[in-house]
Amino acid sequence: MSHKLAEFIRARREAVTPAMAGLPGGGRRRTPGLRREELAQLCDVSPTWLTWLEQGRPVSASSRMLARLAQVLQLSAAERGYLFDMADKADPEHGEAAGGGAASNELAAIVAAIEAPAYMLDRQWNAVAWNAQACALFAGWLDAPQAGDETCKQLPNLLHFMFLSPQARTLIAGWPERAQRLVAEFRADVGRHADQAPLAGLIADLSGASVEFRQWWGAQQVLGRDGGLRRFQHPVQGLLNFNQVTLHLARQHEVKLVMLLPA
Question: Which residue range or ranges hold the HTH cro/C1-type domain (predicted)?
């Protein structure tokens, strides 16, 4: 088991109070969350095994055991997916995603046909395709050359824009809350791949350049990137409200199509 998984389990254990787990909360506690012994009892495992798991030792955890752990820790769907991904185990409640490939010109054709701001992100959250509406909305991010353009030197990255561009802090209404949520969504998205290149380099660069990213990445929060209300304070068009819809490509599941539909 990886240290990343160990840190996540420990953080989630400390976030579950005895009352939430149906246990009495008496006695002095170092943290408001469950003790290891209590979590071990609820999961029907030995405290020693759980201690080793939280220390990142190479212990074996079955899919059934992880499912019980997810239930006791009251994990959301995104957190459960992250748990199984980090443990490199298949969740018995979910099937595997399909793989495949798609050419960048095909991606561009898809987003160009959409009559609302739309863009596609790869696993590193680089924008690999976007339409004119998205370009007009995200000045400072998507007003860059498209992939395949001879002048395109580097794909525009959503996290770079969000945390390193002053324009993002004025464009994104409620920037602190949205930026914090974005980090939790990114953690859920990358899962166990966070320690692999090029994701590890991206995370290290952002942690070094942004205090907020470093703090929120260390908080071990995990949220699903499913959609919801998105608000922008555009310098020309004023306050804009959209409903975000996020879809994954069937043949290239790590690529996401994000559409911002008028609210």
Answer: 8-80
